[in-house]
């Protein structure tokens, strides 16, 4: 098996200062189930520390009161070659998050930071795999946002249709391990999208429903080290067998909101 190689990454994170589940915009969110704020902060801090220990850079954007989902900053944009596309949320509850992150892109000199015309939930639905962007639609991101992003970034964008309400963002059903390798839950995708994934990634790692339900596919990889939900044990075994080095973390507090490790990590590709 070929040796896996890590490359240094830069990430944007947002602390869970105001994280809570006070509304429900996906099937995971139950406002009557309490969130443990201290535990959430500890899990987030450990994730940030883990990236730093792996040698990556982590920028932090301030959390804003009244935006309990802002910790899931990956949904607020896509950055490729230093070019930034902002987000446009489907739900009114999250709309303002996109404004703060777009302003952050402007202040940090990203190229052409733009607010999209169509609904686009950033790296929640846009997954960069080498030169290609796999793009989810069906629950959140408008399919028309796919061509809009492709034109903005000058990249090929491949449309994938999500069909299972639990896996409402593409990044809950598909994880990117390196420029050629993905892991995914086939039954989260429509038949034509499954066929497309099989054709493009014949050696993909196929996940089981149990691991996906722990948001194990909501992972972050640097090409070698894979930061992943500790409870996704079968998936961890498969990525290990494929030559990657798992870095398991308990990130379960955020699952109460339908979010995981990748949701809290926006990659800044320069
Ligand atoms: N509560 C948030 C929402 O429903 C969770 C977002 C998690 N992000 C993700 N990419 N899955 O929008």
Give a brief rundown of this model.
The chain is α/β, with parallel strands linked by helices and 270 residues long.
C-alpha end-to-end distance: 29 Å
Helix content: 25-40%
How many helices? 7
Unreliable parts: none
> How much is the radius of gyration in Å?
17 Å
CATH topology: L-arginine/glycine Amidinotransferase, Chain A
How do the SSEs run, as a string of H and E? EHEEEHEHEEHEEEHEHEEHEE
Overall mean pLDDT: 98
Q: Which class of secondary structure composition applies to the elements?
A: alpha/beta
Shape: globular
User: Oligomeric state of the chains?
Assistant: single chain
- Give the strand content: 15-25%
Looking at the overall shape, the CATH architecture is 5-stranded Propeller
């Amino acid at each position: 098996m070929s040796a896996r190689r890590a490359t240094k990454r830069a990430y944007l994170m947002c602390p869970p200062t105001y994280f809570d589940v006070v509304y429900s915009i996906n099937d995971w969110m139950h406002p009557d189930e309490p969130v443990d704020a201290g535990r959430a902060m500890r899990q987030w801090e450990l994730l940030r520390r883990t990236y730093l220990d792996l040698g990556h850079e982590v920028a932090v954007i301030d959390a804003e009161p009244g935006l309990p989902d802002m910790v899931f900053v990956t949904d607020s944009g896509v950055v490729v070659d230093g070019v930034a596309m902002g987000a446009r949320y489907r739900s009114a509850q999250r709309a303002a998050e996109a404004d703060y992150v777009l302003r952050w892109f402007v202040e940090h000199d990203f190229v052409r930071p733009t607010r999209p015309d169509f609904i686009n939930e950033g790296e929640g639905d846009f997954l960069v795999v080498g030169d290609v962007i796999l793009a989810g639609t069906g629950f959140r991101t408008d399919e028309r946002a796919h061509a809009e992003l492709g034109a903005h970034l000058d990249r090929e964008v491949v449309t994938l249709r999500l069909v299972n309400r639990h896996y409402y963002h593409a990044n809950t059903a598909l994880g990117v391990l390196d420029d050629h390798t993905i892991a995914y839950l086939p039954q989260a995708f429509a038949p034509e999208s499954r066929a497309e994934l099989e054709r493009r990634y014949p050696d993909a790692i196929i996940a089981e429903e149990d691991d996906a339900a722990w948001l194990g596919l909501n992972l972050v990889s640097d090409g070698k080290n894979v930061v992943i939900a500790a409870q996704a044990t079968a998936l961890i075994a498969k990525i290990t067998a494929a030559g990657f080095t798992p870095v398991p973390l308990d990130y379960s507090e955020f699952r109460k909101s339908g979010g995981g490790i990748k949701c809290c990590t926006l990659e800044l590709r320069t």
